[in-house]
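Anyone up for a design puzzle?
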């Protein structure tokens, strides 16, 4: 039984010796870990500003408008910025169809946007000189500050067109390529003896095109139509959708169809 006897002093020594070795090292590890966390947090908070924001995919919406819609600027923290939150805000805008925000090297952000197709605009003087109503390819209308649009000259100006007729025209223009739409400088409605809602398009090359609302889709062949002409800008183009063709004739002859000189 003497082999099982352990002096009380030895027991006390063993129990006292164990914490003396391990507790200080554990505390030191926690201190170092805490310091590392604080260092990283400091780097994130004080050295994490966005260095550059590049916007891509926008044809008509200005970069300033897009970033404002996404509530994003260079003062945001590169690491703490949540792309999905900013994307959700931007998608709530009527003129933005979709948006993707991504981080890149050098604290750089890329904002790739897809716009809802704008096919024209009308001045809205009741809300200030720069206010406008934009017509989208789905026929909807969106009030907007023209100062936030770039390349406004590439959009047709709707003149004296009612809201309901404008929406019908917009849906037909939405079927055309952007390149064709950008050739239309001005658009208005006229009344013919056989159609009260004919559309008159003034093109950027000087031609005047007359068409019914449903015939506007034939404008997809505009380049083919003018290629076969003598380039005489005193002539007008009359689209005849029922015959799937367009004829080039003297503007005076077309104006003889007017039932109301507008």
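Challenge accepted. My sequence:
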């Amino acid at each position: 039984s003497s082999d099982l006897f352990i002096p009380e002093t030895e027991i006390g020594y063993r129990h006292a010796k164990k914490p003396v070795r391990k507790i200080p090292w554990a505390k030191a590890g926690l201190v170092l870990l805490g310091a590392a966390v604080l260092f990283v947090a400091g780097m994130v908070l004080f050295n994490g500003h966005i260095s550059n924001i590049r916007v891509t995919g926008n044809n008509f919406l200005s970069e300033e408008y897009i970033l404002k819609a996404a509530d994003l600027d260079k003062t945001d923290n590169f690491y703490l910025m949540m792309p999905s939150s900013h994307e959700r805000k931007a998608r709530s805008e009527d003129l933005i169809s979709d948006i993707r925000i991504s981080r890149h090297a050098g604290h750089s952000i890329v904002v790739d946007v897809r716009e809802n197709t704008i096919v024209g605009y009308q001045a809205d003087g009741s809300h200030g000189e720069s206010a406008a109503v934009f017509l989208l390819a789905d026929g909807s209308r969106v009030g907007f500050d023209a100062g936030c649009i770039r390349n406004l000259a590439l959009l047709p100006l709707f003149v004296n067109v009612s809201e309901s007729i404008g929406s019908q025209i917009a849906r037909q223009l939405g079927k055309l390529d952007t390149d064709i739409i950008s050739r239309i400088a001005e658009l208005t409605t006229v009344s013919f003896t056989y159609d009260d809602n004919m559309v008159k398009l003034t093109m950027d090359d000087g031609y005047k095109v007359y068409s019914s609302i449903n015939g506007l889709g034939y404008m997809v062949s505009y380049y083919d139509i003018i290629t076969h002409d003598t380039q005489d800008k005193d002539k007008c183009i009359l689209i005849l959708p029922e015959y799937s063709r367009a004829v080039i004739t003297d503007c005076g002859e077309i104006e003889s169809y007017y039932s109301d000189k507008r």
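A detail worth pointing out: Residues 8-46 form the longest helix (39 residues).
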